[in-house]
């Protein structure tokens, strides 16, 4: 009996040009998480068997790049804009095979560009930026900070405009994530404010783990700020 690969090909239809293509995914039975960072970045036991590398699907025909979080419909006017700004400049590349961290970063950057043109929800764009930051973290690259800052700004925009409603992001989780990303980017007073907002909701919160994480980070930051 042959050895089963951790990878398998999944079929996709491009949201823009409607052409079919395949992209690699990882079988869940092979995914082993060692631990999570405080901003939910998963650290896997194997650097190669990392689902974050494969969350973006890049159409080899037109260059449109997207994730499962993207809305499926594109209005005609935006299709025209995507064709002008993405497809007309696309030089055929195939992201459907095993990816290095840099290739994954390139795929996410393409997806962020498409998300901006497509007017995706702020929470979706924030998630793309956050994962780019995670990938730079894996490479110990200082670019991580730039994308953490971009991610937190979009999460704040999403929270203020309520655009995270209907997504997988709960109010408690987005508040915590905003606080943690502010902390990681050195915006400590703002971080304490958002950690406090999580704790204000603890009585009615069902996500107890997030409340405990917020309390730990809030206490640690208060101690640091008091010593400064």
Which value, in Å, is the CA radius of gyration?
Answer: 19 Å
Report low-confidence residues grouped into runs of 5 or more: none
Can you count the beta strands? 6
**Shape category:** globular
Structural class: mainly alpha
The count of domains is 2
| Mean pLDDT score | 93
- Enumerate the strands of the largest sheet in spatial order, edge to edge or round the barrel: 1-2
Task: Please tell me about this protein's structure.
A hairpin with a 5-residue loop joins strand 3 and strand 4 (42-44). This protein folds into 2 domains: 7-150, no CATH class; 170-228, no CATH class. With 228 residues, it is mostly helical. Helix 4 (143-160) runs antiparallel to helix 5 (171-184) and helix 6 (188-200) packs antiparallel against helix 7 (208-227). The model has no long low-confidence stretch (mean pLDDT 93). It is built from 7 helices and 6 strands; from the N terminus they run E-E-E-E-E-E-H-H-H-H-H-H-H.
Please supply descriptive tags for the structure shown above.
mainly alpha, two-stranded antiparallel sheet, 7 helices, globular, DUF2225, TPR-like_helical_dom_sf
Secondary-structure map:
Blueprint: E1 7-13, E2 20-26, E3 33-36, E4 42-44, E5 57-58, E6 65-66, H1 76-85, H2 101-118, H3 122-138, H4 143-160, H5 171-184, H6 188-200, H7 208-227
Antiparallel strand pairs: 1-2, 3-4, 5-6
Helix pairs in contact: 2-3, 3-4, 4-5, 5-6, 5-7, 6-7
